[in-house]
Automatic annotation (TrEMBL):
Domain G-protein coupled receptors family 1 profile, first and last residues per copy: 1-242
InterPro entries, sorted: GPCR-Ligand_Int (IPR052954), GPCR_Rhodpsn (IPR000276), GPCR_Rhodpsn_7TM (IPR017452)
One Pfam family named in its UniProt record: 7tm_1
Primary localization class, coarse: membrane
GO CC, any one term: membrane
SUPFAM superfamilies recorded: Family A G protein-coupled receptor-like
Protein name: G-protein coupled receptors family 1 profile domain-containing protein
Chain ranges passing through the membrane: 20-38, 50-71, 91-111, 150-172, 184-209, 229-249
Keywords associated with the record: Membrane, Transmembrane, Transmembrane helix
UniProt-annotated location(s): Membrane
Length: 289
């Protein structure tokens, strides 16, 4: 069943899956750096700025997509007559693409936060390490960009999600909905609740305390690991919620995968050389007969 809610959920699931893969890759690289006898630190230093950028990109996309889902569900439940013209498939697809594109663009400064620095040891050995760039040193850009980013990623979505979820719950109590709409609405409310609970600690650490990870102390890193665990818990819980409470999401995902497979088969079959029919030789006697 193709609905705007499923479009947003598929985009959010793609963002969450990318974040999970990014976290697994980061964990594996950190784990293998403890293996002696190999230059794994060089791999970690080269990979960390990329994973840092992907982390912030996927988190921004997940936050904005969750807000878009809440707004769509609010219009669907509280204003059903306007939903026919506002909640369309075209608008859902275009909104999802714009959110993903905006998340990639606004997170670009995080890709420029760290630089590889060389430190001499005993005058003979060179030790590689990560250092914060001049752009991200304590200054007006770092403070202002961090606040703008986390207001868009955490503070504003938290306020909007609490307001829209309260309106949806009030409408559910006062109006009777169909079984399918009520099930989808409960699914979205569960996603909103998980988002609020899991993002609140990271919001406090990032905005009020204004702390990063690599350049922070070990105590702050310990708290960072806890907040990152809650964010990872949010992404995995979202996928579980989609698969258990939203049956149409699974059907739509299967249809999308089948269409992708069919398109790949058509492309592969189209690249095959066409067989040429053998030319038949005609003689004068055969043409006259």
């Amino acid at each position: 069943m193709r609905t705007p809610t499923n479009v947003f959920c598929i985009a959010l699931a793609a963002s969450d899956s990318t974040k999970i893969i990014n976290d697994i890759l980061y964990f594996v690289v950190v784990l293998i750096t403890e293996i002696p006898g190999a230059d794994w630190k060089r791999i970690f230093i080269s990979l960390y700025p990329f994973t840092h950028y992907v982390f912030h990109t996927t988190m921004m996309a997940a936050s904005l997509l969750t807000v878009a889902i809440a707004i769509e569900r609010y219009v669907e439940v509280c204003h059903p007559y306007k939903a026919r013209s506002l909640c369309t498939m075209t608008l859902a697809v275009s909104t999802s693409i714009c959110i993903l594109f905006f998340s990639f663009l606004i997170s670009i400064p995080y890709a420029c936060k760290y630089i590889v620095s060389e430190n001499e040891m005993n005058g003979t050995m060179i030790d590689l390490d990560l250092a914060v760039t001049d752009l991200w040193e304590k200054g007006p850009f770092a403070i202002s960009f961090t606040w703008v980013h986390y207001v868009l990623r955490s503070l504003l979505p938290l306020v909007l999600l609490i307001v829209f979820s309260a309106r949806i719950i009030y409408s559910l109590r006062s109006h009777r909905l169909g079984h399918s709409k009520q099930r989808i609405t409960i699914c979205i409310l569960a996603v909103i609740a998980v988002f609020v609970m899991c993002n609140f600690p990271d919001t406090i650490m990032s905005t009020i305390l204004n702390t990063g990870y690599y350049e922070a102390s070990y105590l702050v890193r310990g708290f960072r690991e806890i907040t990152d665990f809650f964010l990872l818990l949010q992404t995995t819980t979202n996928i579980i919620i989609y698969c258990t409470l939203n049956r149409s999401f699974i059907k739509t995902s299967k249809e999308l995968i089948k269409k992708c497979n069919c398109c790949n088969r058509r492309v592969s079959s189209g690249n095959k050389p066409t067989e040429q029919m053998p030319l038949r030789r005609y003689t004068v006697d055969s043409l006259l007969s």
